[in-house]
Amino acid sequence: MDRVYEIPEESNVDPTSSLEEDVIRGSNPRFTFPFGILFSTFLYCGEAASALYMVRIYRKNSETYWMAYTFSFFMFSSIMVQLTLIFVHRDLAKDKPLSLFMHLILLGPVIRCLEAMIKYLTLWKKEGQEEPYVSLTRKKMLINGEEVLIEWEVGHSIRTLAMHRNAYKRMSQIQAFLGSVPQLTYQLYVTLISAEVPLGRVVLMVFSLISVTYGATLCNMLAIQIKYDEYKIRLGPLEVLCITIWRTLEITSRLMILVLFSATLKLKAVPFLSLNFLIILFEPWVKFWRSGAQMPSNIEKNFSRVGTMVVLISITVLYAGINFSCWSALQLKLADRDLVDKGQNWGHMGLHYSVRLVENVIMVLVFKFFGVKVLLNYCHSLIALQLIIAYLISIGFMLLFFQYLHPLRSLFTHNVVDYLHCVCCRQHPEGRAENSQPSSETEAMQSII
């Protein structure tokens, strides 16, 4: 997971007499290289270049429909990416003509990446120097039912770099589910009905698949950060690997089933898929109207009611796009200022996977019994069985993550033990073993922050 900062080796922890009242002060954070920004920019440029190359090939071969759909998916996702970066950085209220021009020619992620790299190099050169403008950041910890606040100073430059990271995380989700998912699905469909796999199309599908997997993985990470915003949570390599396998199997099996189902029924599949998407799209609005709540007006202070409505519609479309191909990890709540339900919605997750499993089985059965002309040289029963097994394995990895690897399990157990051990050793030094090393306060701080 791409971290904004780390805690250095030295820390200044004040003695605490009352855990629920005192604030434990940590030392200033340390910035890290923005790998996530570089990776998101690479995916955007790679997918855009391969899509434009395939548009050129389709035009050369006079394949008008394939060219039009490929170009439309590319343009829609690219425009939404530009709007996302402009919205997060609030560029409309700033005097940045160069940035706006780069967004206009669909190169906004490139100029933003350069800005982030320049900011990182500036911080790297000034490492060790105190910044004149800082702000306090607090996270809390529960110890035996009592809250302990941890506080440290964050410089303005580090916050600017963190804003770039957050913008690119949201950009990656927009690109993944509003661009890469329809692009990947369509290119798979074209490959299936044309029975040829040119190199350019393979490159486009690989970039789209990586983009979708990365965006779905970010959905889980952002959902955890939003639900437990008051706590500092860090995902380890094992947790990220489990999420990646879960999302890869879930998305690939789901999209392959959709492609085979569409190739089997062709235009007859459009009403079923459209109805499916519309149900997901209007579900949050139906719940909002049934609740009788008022439209949130403080999403962005500079927005009018029309601007707020546009933002809510865009978020709803993204939410529907995510849930159409995989689980969104968050439930949209339009009546809330945060627009998400921070509760642990096990019922919503269980309902989603149950409905998707039934849908996938139905579509696979349609392909098995009616897809005679789709894949003549392959066993339909074997393909159908493999796709259903892959989807079930993805559910298994999902259950494995929530049962054993979810960070909430270690937030109030392992870290609490480490922290209490540190506090007890500081208050009762005679209780340490003679041959043990002095416990480091930094280790306790790192386990909490």
Automatic annotation (TrEMBL):
Record organism: Galemys pyrenaicus
TM ranges: 31-54, 66-88, 100-118, 174-195, 201-223, 306-330, 350-370, 382-405
Protein name as annotated: XK-related protein
Record's subcellular location: Membrane
Pfam families membership: XK-related
UniProt membrane topology term: Multi-pass membrane protein
Keywords recorded for this protein, A-Z: Membrane, Transmembrane, Transmembrane helix
Cellular-component GO terms for this entry: plasma membrane
Bias (Polar residues) ranges: 434-449
